[in-house]
Amino acid sequence: MSIGAVAAHFGLAPHVLRHWESVGLLAPARDPAGRRRYTAGDITRVAVILRAKDAGLSLESIRVLAPGADPAKRRDVLREEAAGLRRRIAAAQASLELLEGGLNCDYEDITQCPNFKRLVADRIPDAASGVRG
Q1: Is residue 85 a contact partner of residue 56, using CB atoms and an 8 Å limit?
Q2: Is the pLDDT assigned to residue 111 strictly greater than 90?
Q3: H-run or E-run covering 30
Q4: Contact assessment for residue 28 and residue 36, using Cβ atoms and an 8 Å cutoff
């Protein structure tokens, strides 16, 4: 496939694929005229890059997924990225719980809603800290 066809398939601008090539994430073959020709393997790599970006990985982190990358380094980077993603998921879950708690509150002042107060209790300093509410 040509760079234009691959870019169109994934909804990307061709310059994105050229950039990924320049940083070592892609290495499409060239035809006799020097044009990039993407194989099924290259298409899979683009899909992996996009999925990894969706997961929050930087291009530097995605580089460890490339063929020839050190397997031990790949595991270390992926372990670290997975831990970060778990933290982001937990934060997003807590945020969703807060929003849904607000949706279920009929109080005029949402801060007086017992359920909503429970959802923000971990952010409220206790009496021992000397902060008065």
Answers
A1: yes
A2: no
A3: strand 29-30
A4: yes
